[in-house]
Specification:
4-stranded parallel beta sheet, 36% helix, binds fe (iii) ion, binds 3-[(4S)-2,5-dioxoimidazolidin-4-yl]propanoic acid, alpha/beta, 8-stranded mixed beta sheet
Length: 399
């Protein structure tokens, strides 16, 4: 069989379980967008690209973002610099609800236009898959508009977009004091009307979000639609959301600074990925560390993501996320790289398609100008991407 493209003279970081971060000299080949060969020898191919000894990793995966939204919250950032807390701002009608107002007013095309620079920043650092949540529309039409914009981004750029419905992100003002009625609307009006626009369902389980009982109702409705679930859990307090998510076989529980041992054990038993978001930890000046040692000891897979959003993590760099995870959370280089490849794929339920360099998976590659894997984690604010390949097609580095 003849391959379409063969990359030679590379050092391959397969991220497979046996030797995740020991680079092996070799070649990799694609046909019809998928990896058809990987190993020391070359195979026959229509086109050959010499990688000059460069390091190749799987294309990076940002498994938790709120990339689609209108406006920004720089003014709120300034208030926080003067001492206001994230929760105080949210309770005073700022926060998520202020982004909701601007997002409702924006057209689908405007949402796409505003998200594109953020998406291009991720792509420019080797991201080939990005998860994008709704959650700033908070009414049926606006939530669908956000998800359509997310799908459109995947058509306008060479990137795979996984969409997540986050209707239970915040209480919209028209439902003030009636959170259960809003959850009725999420379950009965919004979720059944998604019509394939969402690949998963998420919720914000928190004092300023929704209670565990309300989240359960959303998860039951997701189950009725045959959609997998994820949860923003234990970010600001411990409501035991991770254990709840695990009971529903959630793909991931995310944030987790306030996670306890019982939650860790529940996640380990259900195979739920722990998605850590060091950008939000940093930007909100959180001081409680997620229980990394306990997650490690229990064998819970750890993913890392930007949480790119205007309120708690206005960041668009997975490379910086890795550096923060290493510096702030003391994660190892191997853990950081697994967090943005194999474990991020698992957090999206896409382990069969992406996240490692293996025959049969999509040929999504990042080719780096670095000598050692550790360099990808070590630098701050420097982009060593040489080239990026999506579905077997090379895309030149974008600014
Ligand atoms: N937790 C977060 O960190 C983001 N959403 C959530 O549930 C914040 C979203 C925002 O402030 O706009
Ligand atoms: Fe988030």
């Amino acid at each position: 069989m003849r391959a379409d493209t063969l990359w030679t003279n590379a050092r391959l970081l397969t991220m497979t379980p046996c030797r995740p971060v020991s680079a092996e000299r070799g070649t990799i080949a694609a046909r019809d967008g998928h990896i058809v060969h990987i190993g020391p020898d070359a195979v026959d191919a229509a086109r050959t690209i010499d990688c000059g000894g460069r390091l190749i990793t799987p294309g990076l995966i940002d498994c938790h973002t709120h990339l689609v939204h209108a406006g920004n919250r720089a003014a709120e950032f300034e208030l926080r610099l003067k001492g206001a807390s994230y929760e105080e701002i949210a309770r005073a009608g700022g926060g998520i609800v202020s982004t909701m107002r601007q997002t409702r007013e924006a057209s689908e095309a405007e949402l796409v236009e505003q998200a594109l620079p953020r998406l291009d920043a991720l792509i420019g650092e080797g991201v080939t898959t990005v998860e994008i949540k709704s959650g700033y529309g908070l009414d049926p039409g606006s939530e669908r508009k956000m998800l359509r914009a997310a799908r459109a981004l995947g058509e306008q750029r060479p990137v795979r977009v996984a969409t997540t419905f986050l209707g239970a992100h915040a209480l919209p003002p028209e439902f003030a004091g009636r959170a259960d009625a809003y959850i009725d609307a999420v379950c009965d009006d919004m979720l059944p009307a998604l019509g394939g626009l969402a690949d998963a369902v998420d919720a914000f389980c928190e004092g300023i979000g929704f209670s565990p009982a309300q989240v359960e109702r959303v998860f039951d409705a997701a189950r009725n639609q045959g959609l997998p679930v994820k949860l923003h859990a234990e970010q600001l307090s411990n409501l035991h959301g991770a254990a709840l998510a695990a009971r529903y076989g959630a793909l991931s529980a995310d944030h987790l600074e306030h996670l306890d041992e019982v939650g860790v054990a529940a996640m380990a038993a259900s195979g739920t990925v722990a998605t850590l978001l060091p950008g939000a930890y940093y930007f909100t000046r959180e001081t409680k560390l997620p229980p990394i040692d306990a997650l490690r000891a229990a064998g819970v897979p750890i993913a890392l993501a930007t949480d790119s959003n205007p309120g708690t993590s206005p960041m668009t760099s997975l490379l910086l996320v890795m550096n923060m995870a290493a510096t702030l959370f003391r994660m190892t280089v191997e853990e950081c790289l697994l967090g943005v490849t194999r474990n991020a794929a698992a957090a999206l339920g896409l382990s069969g398609e992406i996240g490692t360099l293996e025959i049969g998976k999509a040929c999504d590659l990042a080719i780096w100008n670095v000598s050692e894997p550790a360099e990808l984690v070590y630098r701050i604010g420097f982009n060593p991407l040489h080239a990026r390949v999506f579905g077997g097609e090379a895309t030149v580095r974008q600014a």
